[in-house]
Amino acid sequence: MRPSSKEEFKVELKLGGSHLCHIKIFTGRPPHYGPWAEVFNLSPDFVGPVGAPRLLRLTQIHGAEYIEDGETFNALRRGISPEETWLGRLLTRCGFCIIKDWYFPEGWLEGGMKLQAEKV
To answer: What are phi and psi of 94, to 5 degrees?
Structure first.
């Protein structure tokens, strides 16, 4: 995956050749922007009790994109709170608090809709 800036890295994690997830890492631009990471395209096979929690506990993520996750997308559209979706519960279990469900346009660099989360 090609970076959109010198501070940004995009990584696809695989295990035994199988896709696990993508992670976008922004190393920051001090003093104005701190580092963050986003997780997206989580494989349903990876979101089990071991893989995703281990990964998420190691990261300080800024958001988890859910546009490819029909279950979370549909639950949020039905009015279920972000914390009550499977993705929100997973993030909470891994020590994150959900700040909000959002999409913010940034001139075609914003990515998809995401749950913003931070370590408690």
So the answer is: -95, 10
- Is 71 a member of any domain? yes
CA 111 to chain CA mean position, Å: 11
Position 103 in a domain: yes
Q: What are phi and psi of 47, to 5 degrees?
A: -80, 25
Segment 45-56, tens digit of pLDDT:
666 555 566 666
CB atoms within 10 A of CB 56: 22
pLDDT confidence of residue 94: 79
Q: How far is CA 97 from CA 66, 87, 100, 103, 105, in A?
A: 16, 12, 9, 18, 23
Indicate whether this model's pTM tops 0.85. Answer: no
Structural domain count of the chain? 1
Residue 120: which of 42, 61, 50, 35 has the closest Cα? 61
Q: What range defines the domain where residue 109 resides?
A: 8-119
